[in-house]
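User: Fold this; C-alpha cells only.

Assistant: Input:
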Amino acid sequence: MFKKLKAKLKNNNMIHNYSKMWKYVKPYWGRALLAMLITIPIGAMDAVIAWALKPYMDVVMIEKGASYTAYIPLMIVLFTLIQSAFNYSATYLNTWVGQKVSIGLKTDLYHKLLRYDAGFFDKRNSGEIVYRFNGDVDTSCNGLLTNLKLFTTRLFSSLSLIAVLFYNSWQLAVVAVVVLFGALYPLTTVKRKIKPLVSKSVFSGSSVVTHFNETFSGNRIIASYNLYDYQLGKFRTTLHECFRLGIKMIQRTGIMSPMMHFIVSIGIAVVIWLGSYLIVTHTITPGNFVSFIAALIMLYTPIKAIGNNYNAVQMALLAMDRVFELLDGKSEIASKRGAQKMNGLRKGIEYKNVCFEYEKDKPVLKNIDLKIKKGETIAFVGNSGGGKSTMVNLLPRFYDVKGGELLFDGVNIKDLDLDSLRNNIAIVFQDNFLFAGTIRDNIMLGKLDATEQEVNLAVKNACLEEFVAGLEKGLDTPIGERGALLSGGQKQRIAIARAFLKNAPIVILDEATSALDNKSEAVVQQAVENLMKDRTVFIIAHRLSTVRNADKIVVINYGELAEMGTHEELLNKKDSIYASLYQSQLK
C-alpha cells in the first residue's frame, strides 16, 4: 500500500514539478520564506477587525459604555496600516523571487533550445518557440507566485476568521464551514475541464506570434505581390480560432464563480435565520452575531471571486507542466558518453551504405556508398529534391543517418564528440544568417578570440577589403537585423570571412553563389576559391559551371548515387545525366 501511495505521488505532476522548481527557488529561499511568513499576519489581522466588533457592539451599542469608543476604531486603523505595510512587503518579495526564478528557468530553457537538433526546429514554427520557451515561463512563474500570495493570505485569513466564527457561536460556525466546503467543491473539476483546451490555446497563441514574425521577415514579398488582404484574412482566421477557444474556456469555467456566489448566499441566509433564533433565545448576544456576520462576510466575499483566481492558478500549473516537459526533453542528436575528440581530418570521409529519411517510409537517401580523400573537392549535383543538401547536412550531424554508417577517418560519426566534430567543419550556406550587430561581430563568430591581424586576413581572403574600406566605420559598421543593410554578395563574403576565421579542415559550400548576379558571383567565386585551398571541400551547386574543377562530381538522383567522376569523364560518358544537365544549362 505504501509503495502504491509513493508511486501515485511520484506520478503527480504538480508535486513532481514543485520539487523540480525547488532548484530555482533554493538560491532565494530566505526571501521566499519571508514572503510566505508575512502572509500569516496579513491574513490573521482580518480576524482582529471582526473580533473587535463583539465588544464594540455589546459595550457601546447595547450597554452604552464609552470606554471602547476611542480605542477600538484606533486599533482597527492601526492594524489596517500594519496589514498594508506587510501586504506591500509580501508583494515586493514575491515579485523579486518570481523574477529571479523566471530568469533561471529562461536561461536553462534557452540553453536547451540552443542544443536541440535541426529536426526539432523543422517540426515547429517560430511562434511556438517564443510562446513555449518564453511565454510559458512568465505564465507559470508570475501566475503561481502572484496567486500563491493571494491563496496563502486567504488561507491564514480563513483559519483566523473561522476561529472567530467558533468563538462567537459554534452552531452558526458549523453551518458556515459546511457551506464553505460546498462552495469550494466545484474547483476540484477545473483542471480536468480546461486541460484539453490549453494545448489548443497554446497552438493558436503561437500562430498569432508566427504571423507577426512572417510579416516582419516577408514584408517585401507581401508588398510586391499585394498580399495585404490575403495575410489579413489568415490573421483574422487565427484570431477567430483564439476567440472560439477563449469562449469555450469561459463556457467550461465561467459558471464556477456564479455557482459559488449562489451557494455562499444560501449560507448567509441560513446563518441570519439561525442567528436571529439564537439571539431571541439568548444563546448568543447581538455582539456575537454582528462579529460573526462580519467574519462570515470577510470569509465568504473572496470565496465568491476565487474561481477566476483558481483558473489562473491551474493555467499556471499547466504552463509549468509544459516548461518542465521541455526541460526534461532530450535532443535526439548529442554526444554519447566517452565520445572521441576529433582533431582534424587525417585520411578521409566515407559514406557506407547510408540511408536517410525525414518521414517514415519516405527515403531521401538510398544505400549511398562514397569515399572522399583528405584534400579532395567533391561536388554534389542533380535534380532538385534529390538529396544533395541532405548528403552534406549529415556531415555536421544536423541529422543522423537512419541506416549504414558515416565515417571520419574510419570512426563512426556517432562515436565522435559533437562539439569537436563541428569545430572541424565550416559551412557557407546559400542564404547565410547574419546576426544584428556589426560586420566585425559577424566575422568573429568564426573565432571569438581572433586577433586583429587574423580578422584582417580573413577580410582580405574573402574579397571584402574594398567594400570595408569604403565604409565610414569600416568593420564596425552596423548591418541591421539579418544583414538587412547589405547586398546578397556582401552577406556571402562576410559568411566566407567567418569561415576563413574558423580555419576548419572541412568546408561545406551549400549553393554559395546560386542566388547572386554575374558580377557578384565573380567576386564571391574568387573568395570561395581562396577558402577551398588546402581543405576538404563539399560543394552543392545548381550552376554546373562552378564545379568543373572539382576532383569528383557526384550526381545524386532521387536519393541514389547515379554517377561519379570528373567533369570530363562525365561529359564523355554515354547517356550521362550530368552531360544532359550541363548541356541544358549551356543552352
